[in-house]
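Quick log. Single chain, no ligands specified.
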Amino acid sequence: MHRAVLVLLIIFWPALCFADQFSDSVGRYRVLPSSRIHFSVAQMGGAAIEGEFKRFNGTFQLDRNVGQSKVVITLEPGSIKAVDPRIEEFIKSEAVFDAANFPTVSFRSTGVKRSGDSSASIDGQLSAKGVTRPTRFNVAFKGRSGKTLKFHVTGKLSRALFKMDVGTPMYSNMVVLDMDLIGQKL
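-> predicted structure:
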């Protein structure tokens, strides 16, 4: 009997620890400017086109029922930084983001589903360049320090769906997003 209890405890201990850690984290958070939002687009026969959004803001609400959690984030394409200033200007231009006419890209979650002990998928609506499409991101919890939480977020988007497919097939139609988001409890 004691052995069975010990085996069950060993099996379920990681989940119980995460549940306790998560329940302590329930609340509303703002995305800190020290977060990193990186993107890349593969290029046929060359290095990927890469950059980062330098201005963004957002909030997320963690709920005890993970499915009720919410995320809202807004990015400013005019703040994109890349290795080459010519690439920056092209990405901001009418051919890609058209930052002059569409100064923001926004994401609003519609559902969160836990996919592991410390991971989830987030479905939502992404709006860019006047187009709104359903989008999914994968999230991994990376830790807590005081009133801040860290998450690693990844996703892939089709440029064509947002009228940004200039240069295909030389440049991949897929944009790979890789983000390290830090949230501070409000």
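The helical segments are 2-23, 85-92.
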